[in-house]
Amino acid sequence: MVKIFALLLVATSFQTALAAPTKKAKASTPTTAMNAKPASSTPTRKEVTLTQKVVAELVLQQGDKTKEVNLKYQQFRLAPVQVLSNYDWKLSAQTGYEFDNSTSILSSGTVWSDNEYKRYKTSIGLNKPFTTGTKLGLELSRTSEKAQVSSPLNPPPSEQTYDHASLKLEQALLGNFFGVADRGIVNAAELTYQAEEINRANELEDVVLGGHSPILEQLCFTRKL
Fold first, then answer.
1. pLDDT tens digits for range 33-56
2. Hey, which of 23, 99, 133, 193 would disulfide with 179, CB 3.0 to 4.6 Å?
3. In sequence order, what E strands does 27-180 have?
């Protein structure tokens, strides 16, 4: 409120400083016909009224200090974004190839060292934590195997496929009871950002008030001339 009142006083001073040279020019105009100049040779003076709104917009749009303040407070956007990123959907995928040349020992004591197993493994997972303290997970996987076994006794199928699907659900029940802690962290980040926005507005008000001084000094200097 004090800043707004000061801004009104400065804007009023601008209007007074601009109006004063115009009155002086009218008072110094000679009244005699001998010294009068033709109306066509008198330059027309364009009157510019610096209102509170015009001065504030000029400082906020073209001032370097305004850009500095705005850029400085951009960093505070990071905190709420980082907190909310912990609750994103997370997709994971994995694939691989495995070659197994293991040795099989039969009950008869005969060793077979020519067994070969080729396995292709692929899995996809999707996980999502919620601010309610709940964690949801879904996983799909497939394992394909090609076997070449030299054992003549009960050989396995040459090709096999194993598919697996799972759904996982977790719920916090103690310290983070149904997301009390999670929601507190998110709300704290949002409130911190809102507080910094208020500080930014206060600094911009200081910038506007500080920007009036050079303009007023220039007007006063012009008036003395």
1. 444 445 455 566 666 666 666 667
2. 133
3. 90-100, 104-105, 111-112, 116-129, 134-148, 159-171
